[in-house]
Amino acid sequence: MTVPKTLFDKIWDAHVVVTREDGQSLIYVDRVLVQEGTFHAFDKLRRQGLKVRHTERVFAFADHYVPTTGRDRPIADPEVAAMVARQREDAAEFGIRLFGLNDPAQGILHVVAPEQGLTLPGLVIAGADSHTSTHGALGTFAFGVGASEAAHAMVVQGLWRARPKTMLLHVDAPLPFGTTAKDLALTIMNVLGAGGAGGHVVEYAGPGVSALSIEARMTLCNMTIEAGARAGLISPDDKTVRYLDGRPYAPKGEAFNAAADHWLGLATDTGAPFDRRVEVAAADVAPRVTWGTSPDQSAPVTGRIPDPGDIDDAAARGRAEAALAYMDLAPGTAVADMPIDRVFIGSCTNSRLEDLRAAAAVAKGRRARLPAMVVPGSQAVRAAAEAEGLDRVFTEAGFEWREPGCSMCVGINGDLVRPGERCASTSNRNFEGRQGRGARTHLVSPPMAAAAAVFGRFVDVRDIGAATPEAG
Questions:
Q1: Domain spans of the chain?
Q2: Which segments of the chain have a pLDDT < 70?
Q3: Start-to-end Cα distance in the chain
Q4: How buried is 16 (Cβ within 10 angstroms: 0-12 exposed, 13-18 middle, 19+ buried)?
Q5: Which one of 256, 352, 354, 391 is most buried, counting C-beta atoms within 10 A?
Q6: pLDDT tens-digit map of 225-239
């Protein structure tokens, strides 16, 4: 009898070149995705006189350092200008495709690669960014690598890896009204803890996952890394096939039909064994807001900041105390009473068209009370949003409408939260200084962020009537 396999098992087994006595396997890598910060990898190749083995399988993206305003003018910051120029020169020298600053398909790596069809089910993708786990939404084993491993993968098209454990995270029902994949991700982070999925590849499954759009699945897989996981995965289904049909780099015609049959066959078999199983009840998912300095430190918008004294685990208690000190918050404070200074809607977590639609539904007919910016994930997303008039909804509500890039998520391109300021952000990390030195970040979903901008505080989006602005 054929032993049932998980999606991960099928991908791993198909990509093992050789396994050493110590258990490490050389895994074939189908795609290498890099960004401006990967210049160290190209420097290494240059110093050693090496070339990229398969230039057609390596792709570069200008996203972390690129400005989100004033692109009709030279980049003012000399360091940023040098990074952008250096990436352009590296791509030209090594012969790889660059989605550069002036490319009509430019945008965030984890937004552009899927929408271009570079991310396909069954592939192994090494990305020079920790949130490469995003691509697992399409049934891809995708993980982040540093500069040294990126260089290695570009030269030999393979990497050494120990086989990780597997975890099934089952969501029992579709998400309730007013909640999003971001709220589900923050709920899961709260359940698992910051390192709760350490050493595992997490496969999301169940009615609550199959009901999600592909864009929402990307949000979920994007956040997987925040629980310490090696990667996140979702088995390919008909939604996956429909999403990929017609993408520029996806197969065409009969080749696409054959590929689709293969992709659907990659789905986890019934009865396939996992090392660990975790159940999440959709009824427990509510709009959430982080109060601490790690994505697992969140509470429902209707809740209160916990008292570290009520936490039994000494390490977790210490983390909570340190987080509250940095965030300048007191235990017992209602989430709705936490002050906010500005709002950011964007990042590889929540900058796709679906995210912008959800935020615009809240902003429509209202007026921002706080500084707020919206940064689409790619030029394709930006164009689609403008075709629908979403840009006008945002600008009429007083939001800034910007060019694609990582922007305020990582705070290295000039888009910063000032010291001591609080930002309601749709990004993925709220670490100390992530959005700027001394910045305080509260992670939320796109509709929650938009609501925070127009009400000037955290409110429960389930109560405001997004489709009826007069309710606000």
A1: 7-278, 288-471
A2: 1, 465-472
A3: 61
A4: middle
A5: 352
A6: 999 999 999 999 999
The pair of three-digit structure tokens given for residue 125, joined into one six-digit string: 């993708």
Crossing angle of helices 379-388 and 109-116, in 10° steps, is 80
- Give the amino acid at 361: A
The Cβ-side half-sphere exposure at 62, using a 13 Å CA radius, reads 28
CA-based diameter of the chain, in Å? 67
Please give the structure tokens belonging to residue 441: 């970040």
Please name which of 306, 278, 287 lies closest in space to residue 187, comparing C-alpha atoms. 287
Question: φ and ψ at 76, to 5 degrees?
Answer: -70, -40
Residue type (1 letter), 421: E
- Model confidence, pTM: 0.96
Map tokens 């490469």 to a residue.
132
Contact predicate 141/231, CB 8 Å: yes
Whether 360 contacts 393, CB under 8 Å:
yes
Its sign, for the CA torsion 216, 398, 458, 434, is positive
Rg (CA), the chain: 22
Contact between 153 and 29 (Cβ < 8 Å) = yes
Q: What is the pLDDT of residues 326-376, one digit of tens each?
A: 999 999 999 999 999 999 999 999 999 999 999 999 999 999 999 999 999
Fold held by 288-471: Aconitase; domain 3 (3.30.499)
Task: Report the pLDDT value the prediction gives residue 280, as an integer from 0 to 100.
Answer: 97
Q: How far apart, in whole angstroms, are the C-alpha atoms of residue 138 and residue 136?
A: 5
Structure token pair of residue 459: 């409110």
7-278 and 288-471, same CATH topology: yes
Q: Are strands 372-374 and 400-401 parallel, antiparallel or unpaired?
A: parallel
Torsion sign over Cα 270, 271, 276, 279? positive
Give the DSSP letter of residue 364. Answer: T
Query: Which CATH architecture best describes the domain 7-278?
Result: 2-Layer Sandwich (3.30)
Structure tokens at 387: 């075709």
